[in-house]
Amino acid sequence: MGDFGRISVHHALGGGAVADILLWRNAYGGGALLIVSTIFWFLFERGGYNILAFVANNLLLLVVILFFWAKSATLLNRPLPPLPELDISEESVLIAADEMQVWINHAFSVAHDIAISGNLKTLIAVVSSLWLIAYVGSFFNFLTLIYIGVLMSLSIPFLYDMFQAQVDEKLVTVHKITNFIFRKADAILQMIPSTFHKQKTQ
């Protein structure tokens, strides 16, 4: 394929700070995410620490520190704790709702394609994806899956950006093979009802 048709992975990932981290253009951000996720995984998975107890203990410590800081500040005429205004704006709620609406509508359209339209490609894609998630999930717990997802997010976009031409050639070959298989399956499934109908009329 060459460079013709090459897409910008940075632009496809949103082109912001998250894309910089995932593509390691912000090396400090990517390294910090990798180190923090590794520490969390080691603490909760290998160290046997309970995530609920960790969150509760840290919140308890934070609340006690803030309380005594505020009391000592009033007694010693010191400034109060520099807490930001803890208020969620209506705009951020609307943005989150719009994002959720897009995902929910997409899920409904997929369900419609399977249940009403009888789309074989969508059915096979959904069934294979759910089976793969269930199969992989049987080997790991949820926290390990999240950690693997972080590692893949920090490696796959970076490697694809470096070797996009070679990967695209392989993906085009796989796409042609899957299209051929789907066409054969569609032809077989279209022959089945007509065969049953002929047998019934005879």
From TrEMBL:
The keyword Transmembrane helix applies. It is found in: Endoplasmic reticulum membrane. GO terms for biological process: response to bacterium. Residues 18-202 form the Reticulon domain. GO terms for cellular component: endoplasmic reticulum membrane. The chain crosses the membrane at residues 27-44, 51-70, 130-160. InterPro entries: Reticulon, Reticulon-like. It is a multi-pass membrane protein. The keyword Transmembrane applies. It holds the Pfam family Reticulon. Its main location: endoplasmic reticulum. Keywords: Endoplasmic reticulum, Membrane, Transmembrane, Transmembrane helix. This is Reticulon-like protein.
